[in-house]
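Could you help me review a protein record that somebody else here produced? This is what I was given.
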Amino acid sequence: MKYKAALLLLLLLFFHGFSVKAIQRFPRPEFETAYSQPETLLPQARAEVMEVVDVVVLALSLSLVSWLVLKKRSRKGVFWMSLFSLAYFGFYREGCVCSIGSIQNIALALFDRNYILPLTAVVFFILPLVFALFFGRTFCAGVCPFGALQDMVSFYPQKTGPKLNGLLGMVPYLYLGFAILYAATGTDFIICRYDPFVGIFRMNASFGMFLFGGLLLITGIFLARPYCRFLCPYGVLLNWASRLSHRHLTITADECIRCRLCEDSCPYDAIDLPLTDKSPETRSSRIRKMAWIVVLIPALTFLGAGTGFLLHTTFAGVNNKVILAKQLATPANQQIKPEPFSVTAFRTSGKSVESVNLEAREVIRRFKTGALALGGFIGLVFGLVIARRMTGRWHDDYLPDKGHCFSCARCIDYCPVKTKLPKNTP
């Protein structure tokens, strides 16, 4: 544990204040006044050649980690790769472009024809999902800098139990739904706005975001990878893809001998313990369960969709166009003093109030559809989670949960069976 802290401290000291030097992709605006553009404190847009380098490094890192997990079965190798990813994608590349934030780029491109989708964002979005589909969540294991940063502080991880895991595990679905809704309506990129670690990588976050990231890292000492498990929206997509993975990490290289040494090795509660059907269900009991599931899933889906539809104006209330329309509709004697900047900018733009109202109504209309879909999605997820708990998956081995397993290879070190025996071995 001590070497983790030392390595993390060295990384923070080495990369403090280090910024990427690159050409500016879009020219600065030319002002007719004597105003001079101040030097930005944020890293400027990176050169296209460096974006290609990022994609190549991502592909090579995913390939190497997948090999370390599935063939080499080396926890030490995965650890050193995660350290490299933290240094490169985290502190050197300052957490951007990231696969997590690319969700918003994809959503906006699907619903706004005028938005030009960067090719880098497409690759960073798709490539980890493709690897998850074939090899499990090897992106989480040693490529994602957010996961690596949390992994470095995970000194005394404690078990949380299936009930708490199930409850907190719903938060990423909510986060994913709202991120897509606000990106698709052109409202905001909330994943980037409330990113807890990019500000740490760049050493320029607001006090609130530094506090949020710091609290997550402190929590991560006792609750392993809290952001990855209970917040990350991209983890939802990786979860789905990994469940279909052709090859996935296995705890043992050969048949499980049920020695129980790996039972408490996973700090993420991602090992399915053996379950034996000592008292088989009756046929009538199984029919009742299936009937409940058939009724429950559609009911929760429709309930969620209706709730989302009723709340669509509330969700739309944070959109800048909707806010401006409300500000302009406020009587003069009730308006905020001094006048908001958005109102001042409107008065100098030459636009009519009616045009602003039309834009706001269009935004609300889009939120009506989006909130309906969001509510239905959340209701469907609730229904599927309940259905999965009602229908147990019986097995007599210690198996990683394909969806929740981060493929970190911790459990491998606890298994005494290190190699696969030949088939003819007695």
Observations:
- The beta strands are 271-272, 399-400.
